[in-house]
Design goal:
alpha/beta, binds zinc ion, 16 strands, Urease, subunit C, domain 1, TIM Barrel, seven-stranded mixed beta sheet
């Protein structure tokens, strides 16, 4: 594969114009031309976006329970419907979510849900770190979860099938107990996987944890040993400076989900302070029931704006700070050093944006446009590991490499969603 005459976002916070060459799954050359004007930019290549906190099967429940606060939203709107889900439902939701992400330039996702649904990401041709531990921390399910994780990861390693591996997770401190956390930590001494977890999403959750354990959620989780292999913690809205220090020490990244936190009225994560204290900050969409889309461009836009507004300071978070949160910081959060940048030797994961749009001209400052003007619908092609997994111009066949057509994926999604909403 060779992309010629393209603009590109490059490591070192540089914008370049030239050619990208790919052999197999790897970028083998980045050749730059000199002294170009970008104002009528044409095509822009962006490193594949990394969505570090998602529940892709929740596309089935897009928008369900709108207007409720987190606890009531989970207990009244979401959990009763999730109790009715079948394996087919979860697969249909995950595949549709993967398609939505690929069409919006996201090439890698950290996805947490209750069932074994990793195949959906393999079919779509997406990279994924999937976690399916029981959120209730039922003791009987620990052994099942650990063996499923080990078996799946060994099967993935056996031959080149794609890049979908299982990490470990607990849903949150409040939906499990200390015994389960310690058992999972012990099992992970051998597995060595990173932990995906919801942390301090709401004030109430944060304070109830302190009342229960005398510690914040992060301090509590750290003491159980469950963070010993690092991880990625979604939300962290109410984390303290001491929490951020623990996260920096333990290689736990903060996954910022601005849309979800605002829609559920949870608050604003202090990501600027976290960065000052050495925490790696990545971005996520959360699930579509609390977002209600999987659009990482929207997350970049909001992350950039809300912290400027909160700080009363437009210099807070440069466009490059935000672009890195959605690309290389996300790769770091997931322990994936070979993605997240357009550079020789890195995996060929990127999206191509058509800059010939009313809202993208003139393109004097491309990083600023990426964060503040661009939409996921501007993506015309997405490449994962050198394979074109989405091409807008093909219309109904845009996901040509996927064994399930877009039409069949939609029919399955609608059938499942219809049944669930009638429950
Ligand atoms: Zn979540």
């Amino acid at each position: 594969m060779k992309l010629e005459d393209v603009w590109m976002l490059l490591p070192g916070r540089r914008v370049g114009f030239g050619t990208i060459e790919v052999v197999g799954d790897t970028i083998t050359a980045v050749k730059l031309a000199e002294n170009r004007e970008s104002k009528d930019a044409g095509r822009l290549v962006i490193p594949g976006l990394v969505n570090c906190h998602c529940h892709a099967p929740m596309t089935l429940l897009r928008g369900v329970g709108g207007g409720l606060p987190l606890k009531r939203w989970l207990e009244e709107a979401i959990f009763p419907k999730e109790a009715k889900l079948t394996d087919e439902d979860v697969h249909a939701g995950a595949l549709w979510g993967a398609m939505e992400m690929l069409a919006g330039g996201t090439t890698c996702v950290a996805d947490m849900y209750e069932w074994n649904y990793q195949h959906a990401f393999l079919e779509a041709g997406m990279r994924a770190r999937v976690t399916t531990v029981g959120r209730l921390g039922a003791p009987g399910r620990l052994a099942e979860c650990v063996s499923a994780t080990r078996e799946w990861n060994e099967w993935m390693c056996d031959e080149v099938r794609g890049d979908v591996y299982m990490d470990l997770c607990i849903h949150s401190e409040y939906l499990t107990d200390e015994h389960f956390c310690r058992e999972l930590a012990a099992a992970n001494e051998d597995l060595g996987r990173r932990l995906h977890v919801h942390v301090s999403e709401t004030k109430r959750e944060h304070e109830e944890c302190i009342a229960r354990h005398g510690k914040t959620p992060i301090a509590y989780l750290a003491d159980t040993g469950i963070l010993d292999h690092g991880g990625y913690a979604a939300h962290c809205v109410w984390c303290t400076d001491d929490d951020f220090k623990i996260m920096a020490e333990r290689d736990v990244s903060l996954v910022h989900n601005p849309t979800s936190n605002m829609k559920l009225g949870s608050g604003f994560a202090r990501i600027v302070r976290a960065m000052e204290l050495g925490v790696n900050v990545a971005l996520g969409t959360d699930g579509t029931a609390s977002n209600d889309n999987l659009d990482m461009f929207e997350e970049m836009h909001l992350a950039s704006l809300i912290h400027k507004g909160l700080a009363n300071d437009p210099t807070v978070l440069s466009p490059w700070d935000v672009i890195e949160m959605a690309t290389k910081n996300g790769a770091k959060a997931l322990g994936m050093g070979d993605i997240g940048e357009i550079a020789v030797g890195k995996k060929a994961d990127f999206c191509v944006v058509d800059m010939d749009k009313l809202h993208l001209i003139p393109a004097f400052d491309i990083p600023n446009l990426v964060v503040h003007s661009m939409h996921s619908s501007d993506v015309v092609m997405t490449v994962v590991g050198g394979e074109t997994v989405y091409e807008a111009a093909l219309g109904e066949n845009a996901f040509d490499g996927c064994p399930v057509t877009r039409a069949d994926a939609k029919a399955a999604l609608l059938a499942s969603a219809t049944r669930l909403l009638s429950c």
